[in-house]
Design a protein that fits this description.
By secondary structure, the chain is of the alpha/beta class. It has 15 helices and 13 strands. It is 45% helix and 18% strand. The strands form two sheets. The protein has a seven-stranded mixed beta sheet, with helices on one face. The radius of gyration is 29 Å and the shape is flat.
Length: 450
């Protein structure tokens, strides 16, 4: 944290690129290779025209932004060199910075410094990469709300309520001579913990929608060979991504694509047709298909309208009992031979992948299952990362045993320890408490210049 870092902060090949520098010596090092105004003397948050030079040779014509600590992204001195986007120019400028005292930044290190220096908390830092990765306006809106601190405020409010509980307990511990305190304290504790538990339940329930907005719905297309799975994938995503032939077993590995349904991304996976086979490669694909069933949030189970159900398909239906699934009866343009009496008719959608019929009904059914029409993003401020949701669930799981301990009149100082643990777990969500290994792993997911 005491050194000065530099990295290219834009993708290569564009008309303009930015090389970012952060650290105590950022302005001084940049000034060594810059010809123009003396950057050490310019005002903060100014843009300065000039040239980057090496031994009096002009490397590029640039604009240099100078931002002085602490009012910067990292709360350190920052310069940003706006140069032309050629690989040669950008690479040379970075090379000169490194030669004059900078260190190459690690992935996500600028945002990591923003977190460690108190500019962002952990939820806000996570939202930065969510903004970069946003694929829809809805997911972008959700990420921006996290960046502005609304998610942090939600968790901080929970922690403040818990601090009130701890204050009540401290009264009991510090002033045991007052006989009437215990009954009041226990009654208040139970009531307050119920309120906190209800708040956590609401956050977790709404976070399901938030996670769908952010990550999409992992959707697996399964079925026997030659029922039209690959054709359905191609129709949904609007391109010929999966190979389609009349030969059974054409799809031997998973094929992926995605579609946008009213701002929600469906991450589609076309799997190998499920059948018994002696082909080693195809059999591996079949096993992968079965694994995808367990991992997916929605199953599109494809059947062939022109042939009756086989035992394998009944076995697959059994595997889907506790999953979100839709039965797609494909080839509706052919003569019907399938017997649907043993199927859940509420889950059936008829389509013809050949004629592109029935896909509007299929999308409507998907929207019904996940209440997509009811998901509102304008006021949605909830947790979106698996990390934060898991921590909130961990904190929530401890509340019933705390209430039980209170009802059983366990020593008040033992109850205090359990409540403090819940408070600390919530602190991990926003980064009030953290482990270095977790922080390093989280920020390693960022691109190099962010």
């Amino acid at each position: 944290m005491n050194d000065t870092i530099a990295a290219i902060s834009t993708s290569t090949g564009g008309a303009i690129s930015i090389v970012r520098v952060s650290g105590e010596d950022a302005i001084e090092i940049t000034n060594k290779i810059f010809e123009g105004k003396n950057l050490l003397e310019v005002d903060s948050h100014t843009i300065n025209y000039g040239y980057i030079k090496e031994n009096n040779k002009i490397i590029d014509e640039v604009l240099v932004s100078v931002m002085k600590a602490p009012n910067t992204y990292t709360k350190e001195n920052i310069t940003e060199i706006n140069c032309h986007g050629s690989i040669a120019s950008v690479s040379k400028i970075l090379e000169l910075l490194l030669q004059n005292g900078c260190r190459l930044a690690e992935p996500g290190e600028f945002t990591k410094r923003a977190f460690l220096n108190g500019r962002l908390d952990l939820l806000e830092a996570e939202s930065v990469i969510d903004i970069i990765n946003s694929k829809t306006e809805e997911s972008l809106s959700l990420s921006v709300r996290q960046l502005t601190g609304e998610g942090t405020q939600m968790i901080s409010t929970l922690r403040e309520k818990i601090l009130s509980l701890l204050a009540n307990i401290e009264v009991k511990i510090d002033y045991p001579e007052y006989e009437d305190i215990e009954d009041v304290t226990h009654s208040d504790l139970i009531k307050s913990i119920d309120e906190i538990q209800n708040d956590m339940n609401e956050i977790l329930e709404e976070s399901k929608n938030a996670k769908i907005i952010k990550d999409g719905i992992k959707t697996c297309i399964i079925g026997k060979t030659n029922v039209g799975k690959s054709s359905i994938l191609n129709r949904l995503i609007g391109e010929e991504k999966a190979i389609v032939t009349d030969i059974e077993g054409t799809t031997r590995d998973i094929v992926e694509g995605s579609i946008n349904i009213d701002g929600i991304i469906l991450n589609l996976i076309d799997t190998a047709g499920i059948r018994k086979t002696e082909d080693i490669v195809e059999n591996i694909g079949v096993q992968k298909s079965l694994q995808q069933i367990e991992k997916s949030e929605l199953i599109l189970f494809v059947l062939d309208n022109s042939r009756n159900l086989e035992q394998t398909e009944y076995e697959l239906l059994e595997k889907l009992k506790n999953k979100n699934y839709i039965i797609i009866i494909n080839k509706s343009d052919l003569k019907t031979n399938i017997d649907i009496n043993k199927l859940d008719k509420e889950k059936i959608v008829y389509i013809s992948a050949l004629n592109n019929d029935g896909f509007t009904e299929l999308k409507k059914k998907i929207k019904e299952i996940f209440n997509i029409n009811k998901i509102e993003t304008t006021d949605l401020t909830y947790l979106t990362s698996s990390r934060s949701i898991a921590l909130l669930k961990e904190a929530q799981s401890k509340l019933p045993q705390i209430k039980e301990a209170i009802k059983n009149n366990l020593p008040i100082d033992m109850i205090e320890i359990d409540i403090k643990e819940v408070w600390n777990i919530l602190g991990k969500i926003i980064g009030e408490t953290y482990e270095d290994e977790l922080i390093n792993k989280l920020f390693s997911q960022f691109c190099l210049g962010k």
